[in-house]
Amino acid sequence: MAKILPLASLLTAGLLSSTAAFACDDPIKVGVLHSLSGTMAISETTLKDTMELLIENQNAAGGLLGCEIEAVVVDPASDWPLFAEKARELLTVSEVDVIFGSWTSVSRKSALPVLEELNGLMFYPVQYEGEESSRNVFYTGAAPNQQAIPATDYFLEELGVEKFALLGTDYVYPRTTNNILEAYLMDNGIAAEDIFVNYTPFGHSDWATIVADVVALGADGKQVGVISTINGDANIGFYKELAAAGVSADDIPVVAFSVGEEELSGLDTTNLVGHLAAWNYFQSAESELNDEWVAAWKAKMGEDRVTNDPMEAHYIGFNMWVNAVTDAGTTDVDAVREAMYGQEFPNLTGGTAVMLPNHHLAKPVLIGEITADGQFDIISQTEEVPGDAWTDYLPESAVLVSDWQELGCGMYNTETETCVQLTSNY
Amino acid sequence: MLRKLLMALALCCAMPALATAQTLQSILQTHSEEVAKPGRRTVGVLLDDLVASELPQAVPFLEAWRDREIVLREDDGLFFRQRDGDLFDLDTGEVVGASDGVALAEARPNGGVRRAIGDVLVQFQLSDPDITKRQAAVDAIARSMDASQLAPLAASVAGEPDPTLRATKERLIGLLQASFAPTADARIQAIADLGSDLSVDTRAVLSKILATEPGVAVTLPEGANIAAILTPGVDLGTDEAYAQLVKASLAPPVTSAADVRRALEANIVDGTVGGLPVATMDTQEARAAAYQVLAEAGTVPPLVTPDDQAAALNAHVFYLSYSEPDVAITDAARASLDAIETKVALSQAADLGLDALSLASIYFLAAIGLAITFGVMGVINMAHGEFIMMGAYTGYVVQLFVPDYTVSIIIALPLAFAVTFGAGVAMERLVIRHLYHRPLETLLATFGISIALQQLAKNIFGTQARPLTSPSWLDGALVFNDVIAISYIRIAIFVLALIFLALIVYVLRRTRLGLEVRAVTQNPGMASSMGINPDRINMMTFGLGSGIAGIAGVAIGLFAQVTSEMGQAYIVQSFMTVVVGGVGSVFGTLAGAGLIGGLQKGIEWLNPSNTLAAQTYMILFIILFIQFRPKGIVALKGRSSAD
Amino acid sequence: MGKSFLSQNPSVLWFLIGLSVFTLVVTLLSEVTGIAFISTSFVKTLGKTLCLCLIAVAMDVVWGYCGILSLGHFAFFGIGGYAIGMWLMYARTEIIVLESLAGQVLPPTPQEVSDAIGTQIFGVVGSSEFPLIWAFADSLALQLLMVVLVPGALALVFGWLAFRSRVTGVYLSILTQAMTLALALYLFQNDSGLRGNNGLSGLQNIPGFEDTSQATISIIFFWASALALGLGYVFFAWVVSGKMGSVIKGIRDNEARVRFLGYHVESYKLFIFTITAVVSGIAGALYYPQAGIINPGEIAPIASIYLAVWVAIGGRGRLYGAVIGAAFVSLLSSWFTGGGAPDVPLGFYTIKWTDWWLVLLGLSFVAVTLFFPKGIGGLFDKLVRKPS
């Protein structure tokens, strides 16, 4: 008994200190559905830590509706079917009020049917290929028109690129993004033969031939630019090979959509200096809010840790959700969803993010040049761009809009004026 | 020309009083927005003004701006140069104060603007005493060739002291003349002089001269410089050709299924359309019939049938015409380009061959250790990939302690060998020794070790890729000509593979150990009765195979990435290499690696847009290959073939 | 067979009784009866585990009884899943599409319906053309036939080529591994027409049962899985028990001798290889509607290696061993990685099971192969024999 006593008193003390401030008995539960093991752990663990930091801060500020917020963390282990299983567990067993989670498209597609069946609510924080708008998901990452299209505009306008190499890892995000970009480039007068597309497997390392192909594109006197949707580790070999071939960012600029601070940290970036990345957030953004956020992050996680774009997406998403719950006075999913539309919250990069009726955010688009210290020099920042669920550049989806507030439909055909479907096409 | 310019600059310097009317700062202030947030398309006005002002301080300003040293003081909106914590006045060049504690905004020109600045700087830098600046100017010309650069470039050649740069300048003049020389003869001469230069910019110049535009007409236009006449269906798709006709307003647009539907929907009268009930409109044929009725009534444009399309295509001629009107010039350029392209094709084949060789050497390095353990001992080591990973992480750890990359690689190679040799011997002693009679179970046990090691690496080093940086003398590439090049790091791997091939062949053929290993391979029972200790041989062989995997790990880490999963990427490939080559034979493994590397590159060449497909087809090929040569390319007699 | 077969193989009877009791207990405690002691998500986990047990039994027959270490049986499992998944996706989308097209002024043409379904299914991967392999996706009967025929045909062709060339032992293992790798890589490509890396998703929504709750659907699939496992178990027990079973075990122990005795070894091996592939396909077709999503990652070579490990841990050469191995390891695995196991603080370091589980699992394979070559099933033997 003597042994147990200190432990018990410790526990009660801990409980007291954390619950004493809150008026209500049951905490509000927030599910965190990010892989903590497996291939995606590298990216997703950071987001779990972000959520814990955000919840700590909110509790310190008095919680929500007078209640404490409690994080329910589960590990879907980078195993896509597990996302469906764990989402069901969170919603039915843990009975969480909201879920923040997923990184890859396939994991989101896996959890979607469960969310729609059980009327859950999920915030998805990563840039993605679009072509989706679920009633039960808020997309706080970038849609293609908030990342890929502005970056391509930058290539066309500022760098005068006339010939494009679209290099990507062979999965859905690069495939769909490149399809949209091909259509967009052709609309902008780039001939089909001036667009070179290549897909490589995950973790590809043999880049010599592909780099030679890209260099050879310059043979007809046009400025060549690379738009890279290469994912993860494969980037390292790619940039090494570019450097070995003597190709600098001045000769052939590369803009990447999947390379951020987290991916660059701990890497030798000398080969990458001057190449570009497009995001909605860079750690180097100059604003007081950002300085505070970066300081809070480093205080929690250590000096050498960096912040990145999906973290900002969770930052905005969580705060919007908190405000929506406060406005609605309840955590009921339908009420919160209604309260979400039109929610505004300041971006870390300046300006204000607005939640649109299509469940996407309006956010500014930033383009940065990689610097030697693994950070980005922001060289272009647009006004807030409203996220578009269905791209305007593919004929099938140009006629579709999503408007859950007015039309109550995520896939509305403006031509036939009918709602194509209410649940997602997974 | 240039002398005049210099004189003008000198005059400006001598008479600052004259310039007081217009200071650099005042020009910048009129274009303040443009300096702070420049764009490629809009920066031209500012640059023109700066050049027109002929201010001597404009050139250093442009250089500083390009190098991102210009800042905007937010209090008063003035621009300064910031360097080493001090602010410098742009006109006088004097220090005006420290940069600390002042609200400053950096004026960051993007890549496009930097190029525009570079273009302006060209005329000032071509004869600059600083060779790096002259080089920058020449690079700027090479990136964006323009008629106006020809004269200053030609003027600067005579005074160029550096022979290499001079050659570059002369080459550039040749390229510029091919495009911009005033007379046709001079251009043809310049084009002919380009000769057999394979470089990308030469081809770029020729291709630009040969740029064509598609055209369509009833008869070929007179006076146009026709490049080719195209036959629809052969040289270009019929749909594409018809679209061209529609665009040129020579034919009515095709009526698509959606058009038909829209037209029908717009013409519904009392539940019927074209006299037919709407409910029957659920087939394409019914809709076409209804549309026909509407078309005959004149309410909708007539349906364009495939026959109409074919007739329209036949009635017109499709062609490509050169933008360059002079036939003699395009002929000369075509001849030059054809000659160059033949050579380029040959060079590309050679380059592909080099890539294949490089890939083969990587596969060989990854597989040779496996060939020894699998081939000689008949043991499947699923943890072989993890030994590769251990080698790579050893390299990474060494670089943490030894910052000099050359020294660290020299330490890392033997250390990686030692570490994985030890791990291999330990594994052989603890696990594999007990399973020699159960080869399938070795597979499972070593697989268990493999996933344990992988997870262990994740726990220790994290899931993130770790850097393994090659020494600077391995940066860059060996360039044979403008097409054939191979990075030094790949050459180093190739050499490493050769060394190990020689070493292993030597050990197996010329040493006591090799003799004993071969004896054990061919007949373990007999070998042991001849006084050879098979236990020791097995241990040594396994250690050797594992050690080589460790060295392969360092090599692979240098050109790709170091992650806990890197071994997995090579293990299946390595097994295939060994099995295709023939188990137990070093030369078999070499042949297997060569075959697989060459094949993969060959398939990639056939389908360059999909590397994944190349891997799929290669594996299918291997499966079929083994069906017909189950013992691999080099079949060996002995224990391994006795089953 | 009937009575004499069961009386000769009492373990089969015991297994069937155990399985029935288990099925009933789970059903009683599920959300369907209102007791809801077992959540729907756990019913799904149990149902999936039964499917894994079925493929493990198949694997045991091909490896434990016939001596062919196939590292490719998960390819057949995946094909079964894809075959049923195609119908599930197509039929569900067709319902949605017809509903939305009903609002159109003109009645839709077959072409329009097909285009609209194509846009729905492939829109996200950037095309709307139906690939050829979807030709039968509109028919449940044909797709169900594909569940059996495609794995069977693939195994038949592959096995015929391999056994004819006398590829045996570790060579065959590597070859089967190459087969599953090639299939996974092929499916990873978007051009494969099966939605690349995203795979087929939303499979838990059964067309025509929109109003049925997932609690009921999960129990129906749980029963179907239990039934399939029971039937599969009896079938394989029958296959390995008679004269044919003796020949098969003979091939495992000494292939050459069986051949010299006049048996056509290749035909026996081909039969076993193909029939186990078919059963794997059926197991997959039951598994993926419960998992909800199938994608190429599911058939990566590692999955098939795990399958071999389950069988090894459970105990080769005994069917119940395979069932125990698959159920034990996969449930334990999900308990550990699911955060079910408490962290162990050591003061200087805290052991998190999510990090260390795989290390433990890997080392336990080594231990099992070294010290318990008969696996968990071997322990039963000792228990049974001791009294006698």
Automatic annotation (TrEMBL), chain A:
Transmembrane portions of the chain: none
PROSITE patterns xrefs: PROKAR_LIPOPROTEIN
Keyword entries, A-Z: Signal
Signal peptide, first to last residue: 1-23
NCBIfam families: urea_ABC_UrtA
Name by which UniProt lists this protein: Amino acid/amide ABC transporter substrate-binding protein, HAAT family
Native source species: Yoonia litorea
TrEMBL record, chain B:
Subcellular location: Cell membrane
GO molecular function: transmembrane transporter activity
Pfam families: BPD_transp_2 (PF02653)
The keyword 4Fe-4S is annotated on this UniProt entry: no
Record field: transmembrane: 356-380, 409-431, 483-508, 539-562, 574-599, 611-628
CDD domains xrefs: TM_PBP1_LivH_like (cd06582)
One GO biological process term: amino acid transport
Membrane topology summary: Multi-pass membrane protein
Keyword Transmembrane helix belongs to the record: yes
A GO CC term attached to the entry: plasma membrane
Endpoints of the signal sequence: 1-19
Keywords linked to the UniProt accession: Amino-acid transport, Cell membrane, Membrane, Signal, Transmembrane, Transmembrane helix, Transport
Family: Belongs to the binding-protein-dependent transport system permease family. LivHM subfamily.
The protein, known as: Amino acid/amide ABC transporter membrane protein 1, HAAT family
Organism: Yoonia litorea
Lineage: Bacteria, Pseudomonadati, Pseudomonadota, Alphaproteobacteria, Rhodobacterales
Automatic annotation (TrEMBL), chain C:
A GO-annotated cellular component: plasma membrane
Source superkingdom: Bacteria
Membrane topology type: Multi-pass membrane protein
A GO term, aspect molecular function: branched-chain amino acid transmembrane transporter activity
Pfam families registered for this protein in UniProt: BPD_transp_2
Keywords: Cell membrane, Membrane, Transmembrane, Transmembrane helix
Annotated localization: Cell membrane
TM ranges: 12-38, 50-79, 140-163, 170-188, 217-240, 267-287, 293-312, 319-336, 356-380
Keyword Cell membrane recorded: yes
Primary localisation category: membrane
Name of the protein this chain belongs to: Amino acid/amide ABC transporter membrane protein 2, HAAT family
Species this chain originates from: Yoonia litorea
